[in-house]
Design a protein that fits this description.
single chain, 498 residues, alpha/beta, Rossmann fold, Luciferase, domain 3, nine-stranded mixed β-sheet, 34% helix
């Protein structure tokens, strides 16, 4: 099976339904499918081995994704925010490609790589104008690679993560009901096209028959305006976006009554932010969606009922779930294991492993799956007795002080309990005596004075223990996050002089 089936089914079931709105232009499902078939012809004519998108979200993302699927070549959206040197290196790894986006930049940094390059406008126009050579044109059945995504490279050089048609369909068919959306349902998509959340948002909305409303570049004002203008019913945001939306909504009240569901993910959600959101959006169901590129998106959910129950409960165990990832999807299995691969019980911290049809765990020319088809996520955490998953950070982020493993997450949670601390990051810093020690970077809450370093150290000593007390404390205006809300610890280490 091929992911193009999703668009074909939507176009056959409701050809005249609006499937996409971008920059004021409206596309029916029939028009999107026709353009994808035109894109197929362009790809075939170019001889490209990949289809790359070097641009913000637009109709070109939908047309390129499904055009590539029809042609049987991988779709590879690229991070247009990368430096020229880094982007040129990625383009070289997928040459020759049909590249949609920044013509001038590709010509300048990768002119000798054999790419066929179209501007967004030219690609969309040609895809609309190009008619398949025959009405009974046969397309690739698609048992191979559908999408290749380069990881963000927050700790190392980007890896080429491989997602096959079977992986992506395993996620969509296992979590979305075909044609389940009403004609008035609309999903606001603002995450970058080169992130798995952006790709899964397109596919799931199309399969459900939901109208996709694109916001190419995020701003809280633009987001709220589109919600009001398009009567948006569903949205996905990262934690930093939600925080800015809340601040804007508190400053400028806007009609958000149409919103029935907001999903969030991509980074750690501060508890105070989600508590504010639940108060400001009383009729909206919130869902924490946890997943990875290598798992074709979501593998665990904390649903609306869990959010409401946690907020209303006096039981500390139930209230703590507001900071959890929720429970595994029915279509996947999740285990927590120690360094020796032993499966751990409730409350025992280790590395999260996942298995299921949607799980690829595959990189270019290399599989990361271990025995039994399990994928080690490199995320550290634990599961409680009711199956709720709690994340404590990346396994690679663990601080090893004198042979003792420490989770940055537990240190950060204590720091954030201080009334003057708005944001916190703990990471390993070099230590002659211990090998590694704790360093922390802190952001002071607006309107508060900077706490004394001794006060911070004493807080950690009292709430945790002396081994967790930081050797280095730095106060910064803000912490470095990428566009998906992931904290860039390597940049924090530079701040701390490592």
């Amino acid at each position: 099976m091929n992911i193009s089936l999703l668009l074909e089914m939507a176009a056959e079931a409701a050809p005249d339904r609006i499937g996409l709105v971008c920059d004021g232009k409206r596309w029916t499902y029939a028009e999107l499918l026709s353009a994808a078939r035109g894109a197929f012809e362009l790809i075939e004519q170019s001889g490209a081995q990949y289809v790359a998108l070097l641009d913000e979200s637009s109709e070109a993302a939908v047309i390129a994704l499904f055009g590539a699927a029809l042609a049987g070549v991988p779709y590879c959206p690229l991070n247009y925010r990368l430096a020229d040197t880094d982007l040129a290196a990625l383009l070289a790894r997928i040459a020759p490609a049909l590249v949609v986006g920044d013509e001038e930049r590709v010509s300048r940094i990768a002119d000798d790589q054999g790419h066929t390059v179209y501007s967004r406008e030219e690609f969309v126009l040609k895809a609309q104008e190009t008619v398949p050579e025959a009405a009974d044109r046969e397309y690739d059945p698609g048992e191979g690679v559908a999408v290749q995504l380069f990881t963000s490279g927050t700790t190392a050089a980007p890896k080429a993560a491989i997602l096959r048609h079977s992986n992506l369909l395993g996620y969509i068919l296992g979590s979305v009901e075909f044609g389940s959306a009403d004609e008035d349902d609309a999903a606001l998509v603002v995450v970058p096209p080169y992130h798995i959340a952006g790709i899964s948002a397109l596919m799931s909305s199309i399969y459900a028959g939901r109208r996709i409303v694109m916001l190419p570049a995020f701003s809280p004002e633009g987001w709220l305006k589109l919600v009001a203008d398009e009567k948006v019913t569903n949205a996905f945001v990262v934690p930093t976006m939600l925080g800015r939306i809340i601040a804007e909504l508190e400053k400028t009240p806007t009609d958000v009554g149409s919103l029935r569901a907001i999903a969030y993910g991509g980074g750690k959600m501060p508890v105070e932010v989600i508590q504010k959101a639940l108060a400001l959006f009383p009729h909206t169901g919130f869902t924490n969606a946890y997943g990875l590129t290598e798992t074709s998106s979501t593998i665990a959910l904390l649903g609306p009922d869990d959010h409401r129950a946690a907020l209303a409960s006096d039981d500390p165990k139930v209230r703590a779930r507001l900071g959890s990832l929720g429970q595994p999807l029915p279509t996947v299995e999740i285990e927590v294991r120690d360094e020796d691969g032993r499966v751990l019980g409730p409350g025992e911290a280790g590395e999260i492993y996942v298995r299921g049809d949607q799980v690829s765990g595959e990189y270019k020319d290399k599989s990361a799956l271990v025995e039994g088809g399990w994928f080690p996520t490199r995320d550290a955490g634990y599961m409680d007795e009711d199956g709720y998953i709690f994340l404590s950070g990346r396994a690679d982020d663990v601080i090893v002080r004198g042979g003792e493993n420490m989770s940055p997450g537990e240190i950060e949670d204590v720091l954030l309990a201080h009334p003057a601390i708005a944001d916190a990051c703990a990471c390993a810093v070099p230590s002659i005596e211990w090998g590694e020690a704790v360093g922390v970077a802190l952001v002071v809450r607006q309107g508060h004075l900077e706490p004394a370093e001794d006060e911070i150290k004493e807080l950690i000593r009292v709430r945790l223990r002396s081994s967790r007390v930081p050797d280095k404390v730095a106060f910064v205006p803000e912490l470095p996050y990428n566009e998906m809300g992931k904290l860039l610890r390597r940049e924090v280490k530079k701040i701390l002089g490592c």
